[in-house]
Structures are given as structure tokens and as C-alpha cells.
Amino acid sequence: MFKIEEVRDLAREAVAELDPACLDGRDAAMLAEAAAEGAKLLDAATAILAKRAADTNAWRRTSRAATAEQWLATMSGCTEGAARETLATAQRLDSLPATAERLRSGELSLAQAAQVSAGAIVDPSAEPRLLRTAKHSGMRELRAEKERVVAAATDELEAHQRAKQDRHLRTWTHGFATHGSFSGPTEDVAKILAALEPLAKARFAQARTAGVRESRDAYRFDALVTAVTSVTATRPATASSASNAAACVLVDLGSLLDGKTASGGTCEIPGVGPVPVEHAREVLSHGLLQLVITDGVDVQTVVSNTRHIPPALKIAIAVRDRTCKIRGCDCDRMLERHHTVDYVDSHRSTYTELGNLCPKHHDLVTNKHYTTTDNRDGTWDLHAPAHFTGSAMANAPPGEAAA
User: Among residues 9, 121, 216, 238, which is most buried (max CB within 10 A)?
Assistant: First the structure.
């Protein structure tokens, strides 16, 4: 029953002793294939066991996470989105024994099983076809085949409504580069691309004249920047528009004076990521920048006797709480300010009583009677209301129970 633990220990020992310099290329390739197959099997075991732990709420005994997704993400070192997909895949496999068998045997990776099961769950007759595609084709073709299966099995109106409900524009940052993706109804995306096309062609023509050649994607990005900045330039300069355009840059004084980020220093846009100090200097002059220098005012002394949050306090909270304050939650988008002591009771807004929460956790504490307690590291623990304790915890809806 606990052979998984033995396999883990053997794998740890084998990896610790691994010296690729002692292997020729052929042996290295052979062992890489064996390791990849082993990884697929262990991923399958993780998904199956994690689902059981989630179904029984047993993960709560050893974790302070608020949801099973957070627990799995923290345990496996992946994102909450990836953890959510792992649990969803394991859930679908209960109705798809053929796909489950292929996953358990190592013929399918967990990523392949996610695609096969997502299609087969809406059209079980397509499962054999999807399994053949997974065996003989790459992930791109498997994903395309899954999408065809889902489209054929889904009502067009329903699919369109779902596309509209799921529309989004997301960003994430690595170093100085911010990446993004968006999704929405195809006809709306087509309008965006059509509007960008002439601007991208103009950018291409300019680059060609200058003797520069870049990718079409690069020109489309430039076109998007041109479209947005041209709209901003023609917008009336009202107080509200200036406020919305403001940027908050956190920079330590030494870096600002030196002109570059010092070792261990900071220059970043909270919730977005690092930016060059030159950027902070450049935008400092036009008045739309809220610059937070880390050697600044003691914001803990700022108290408001109204619901209005003073600018200094608002910026300080944004800098301190760059992710949701619930321990284990790494959400850094659409954060909402929360009063730990209801304003109707305290009639004040202070640095210590305010904190940023993601929409999901803010809804739990605001509308579902969840409570929070402070941790020494500045995070909060989330606690379910009394009616979720004891045996009732096992029947709690997903995402509506806390550590």
C-alpha cells in the first residue's frame, strides 16, 4: 500500500547519486526516457491520491490552505490553476475507465489525460478516437481534436455564452517582461485583430524603411501599444482619467539615486513586477506617478475616520499586500481591501485593520461568515463558520471550507 513512499525514497537516492558526466549520450537518452516515464506514473499517482484527499477533506489535518487546490499547489510546487486542473482531471477519470487505465500504465501523461478526459466527458463515444490521437500525435493535435469534440457536443448558443462568461485578459511577469493572454467570443477577438492589422502593417513598413526585420507578433504588440496610447492621448484630461492612469512604483532610495536597482534593492510596480529605475525616473516628471520610497513616512500612524482610504494608506497597503493575505493564496490580481474589524463597529480605517484579499476569499469573509486571524509573517489564516466544523466539514461545497 505504501510502495509509493519506497519509490520516492529510491528516486531521491538515485537522483542524488546521478552523475551525467559519467554517461555516454546513448545511456543518458535511455535514462532520460525512463525518468520521463517514471514522472508520468508519479504524476498519475499524485492526481489519484490528491482527489481522494480532497474528497475526504483529509488534507486539512496537515495544511493551513483554504482550499484543496491551494493545498495541492503548495505541496507540488505548481500554480493553483494547474492544481485545479489536476483535481478536475482525476474527477473526470471516475467515468472514463479506459483513459484512467492508460494513465495508470504510463501510456498517457497527466497533461494528455486532461485533454482526453475533457473531450470524452462530454462525448464518451469520442474517447477511443482521442486516445488514438494521444498515442500517435502531439499535444497540439490532441488539443485541437478535443476542441472539435467539445464543439460538436455543445450547443452553439451555450458555447457562445460560456465564451462570453469566461472572457478575460490576464498578465504575469518574469523579470522585466510582462506576458499576457486573453480569451473571448471569437467575433470580438476578430474585431480586435482587425483593428490592429493596419497599425501592424504601418509598423512593419516603418521597420522595413529603417532596415529592421522583426516578427509579426512584435509588430502586432507595437500596434496594440499605439492603439491604446492614441486613445489615451485624445481622451479629455479629467481628474478621474488622470487618477486611473496613475502608476505606483516601489523603489528604495538608494536605487533611485544611483539610477539602477542595487543588489537586494527594489524597483517594481506592485502587482506587476520589476521595472528599470530609468522608468521610475522617466515617469516621475509627468505627475501621474505615485512614487513610494521605502525610507518614507510611517504609514501605521495614518488613520481615517471615514470609509475613504487616504492615498498614503492606500498605496502602503498595495505595497504591503501584493498578493492575497490568506496564507497559501498567491493571487495578485483584482485584489479588494477588507476591514478585519467592521467599519460600522470601529468607524475607522487603519493600516493594521485593512488588508487585501482576492475576490474569492473576500466573498467568503464578507458574505459567508468566514473569519481571519493574524500570523506572525503578516499573512492571515482563514476559518470556516461554526456550521462547517465537525462532520459537516466533509459535506462542504468545494472552496467553502477553511483550514
Answer: 121
Q: Are 317 and 337 in contact (CB under 8 A)?
A: yes
For the question of whether the overall pTM of this predicted structure is more than 0.70, the answer is no
Q: Distances from the Cα of 391 to the Cαs of 65, 68, 71, 79, 386, in angstroms? A: 19, 17, 20, 30, 11
Sorted by where each begins, the domain ranges of the chain are 3-154, 167-234, 322-395
Strands 247-251 and 289-293: parallel
- Please name the helix (run of DSSP H) or strand (run of DSSP E) that holds residue 292, with its range, or none: strand 289-293
Answer yes or no: are the C-beta atoms of 146 and 119 closer than 8 Å.
yes
> What gap in Å lies between CA 312 and CA 351, rounded to an integer?
10
Q: Which helix (H) or strand (E) holds 345?
A: helix 343-346
Angle of helix 80-93 relative to helix 110-120, nearest 10 degrees?
60
Alpha helices (runs of H) in 181-310, residue ranges in sequence order: 186-209, 216-234, 239-244, 253-258, 277-284
Give the separation between CA 86 and CA 90, rounded to whole angstroms.
Answer: 6
Taking the C-alpha atoms of residue 197 and residue 390, their distance in angstroms, rounded to an integer, is 59
pLDDT in tens, 363-379: 899 888 888 998 888 88
Answer yes or no: are the C-beta atoms of 139 and 112 closer than 8 Å: yes
Chain center to CA of 71: 15
Closest residue by Cα to residue 378 from 347, 340, 346: 340
Asked whether residue 399 carries a pLDDT value surpassing 50, the answer given is: no
